Amino acid sequence: CPKSQFLQSAPTPPPPVTHIGARYTWPCRKPAKPEWPLLPGCGTLLILDHNESGLRIFRSFDWTDALFDVTWSENNEHVLVYKEHTQEVYSVDWSQTRGEQLVVSGSWDQTVKLWDPTVGRSLCTFKGHESIIYSTIWSPHIPGCFASASGDQTLRIWDVKTTGVRIVVPAHQAEILSCDWCKYNENLLVTGAVDCSLRGWDLRNVRQPVFELLGHTYAIRRVKFSPFYASVLASCSYDFTVRFWNFSKPNPLLETVEHHTEFTCGLDLSLQSPTQVADCAWDETIKIYDPVCLTMPA
């Protein structure tokens, strides 16, 4: 969305930013009483700006209903609202390959929908999952290819050209809450599940995982590959921790960060800095920091 849209509405004074060393912490305000009080996800959406002086809150929005995920468009399109899913939308992702301007969304209605922002309706609905879809993410390498992870314990690979599933991986014996593609290997994905494990999958042979990472003590909520290091990834969990791994090492756990007091539910690695990480938790804070393991030579 164009920056002017954030400036048009009267802003609510943002919460204070705490800076401790290389760490930034944003406390998130409690919203007004939501329409669905038992549904998690209500809170504040923060737009952050990074410049020579550091990080600042550019705008903040109080959300009165469940907000689960957000993503950016590089185009200054008008705001669009699509209402086709019949239950909560849990995941959304923009295509990453050149020549495509597509969005996929995954829902509790067990479907994935394909969208083009220039069209006022979905282009296609993908069916096959038998439970809630928690994660949908485009391949950074293969045009028209995306992955989805579900409570039906499967990882699925889809092709928009055939509108059908290409590969079904029975990846865990528990709900899969997150998946991500390796930025350096088009055939490698990782899944994180309620069984506390991370598993790597080579799409050329999915009979067995190529690696398994153990250490979390509760469900893994989000997993992300590093955009700078081929074998490094990060995961966050309901055990309040963020863990950093190098699956190519005999002892893969690089570091455990425990700076939240509630479930850690969001995680991302900077595309600009190889050492910077952001995470968030149910303790109403966002933390941006440089973990020691990413500041040291590999």
UniProtKB/TrEMBL annotation:
Taxonomy, superkingdom: Eukaryota
The entry's keywords: Cytoplasm, Peroxisome, Protein transport, Repeat, Transport, WD repeat
- Quote the InterPro entries the UniProt record gives: PEX7 (IPR044536), WD40/YVTN_repeat-like_dom_sf (IPR015943), WD40_PAC1 (IPR020472), WD40_repeat_CS (IPR019775), WD40_repeat_dom_sf (IPR036322), WD40_rpt (IPR001680)
Task: Name the principal localization, coarsely classed.
Answer: cytoplasm
How far does the signal peptide extend, from start to end residue? none
Cellular component terms per the entry's GO annotation? cytosol; peroxisomal matrix
Q: Where does the record say this protein resides?
A: Cytoplasm, Cytosol; Peroxisome matrix
A single Pfam family it belongs to is WD40
- One GO molecular-function annotation for this sequence? enzyme binding
Biological processes per GO annotation:
endochondral ossification; ether lipid biosynthetic process; fatty acid beta-oxidation; neuron migration; protein import into peroxisome matrix; protein targeting to peroxisome
Cell cycle is among the record's keywords = no
Q: Does the record's keyword annotation contain Cytoplasm?
A: yes
Q: Where are the WD repeats?
A: 82-125, 126-162, 169-205, 213-255
Please give the family membership noted in the entry.
Belongs to the WD repeat peroxin-7 family.
What protein name is recorded for this chain?
A: Peroxin-7
Which organism is this protein's natural source? Sus scrofa (Pig)
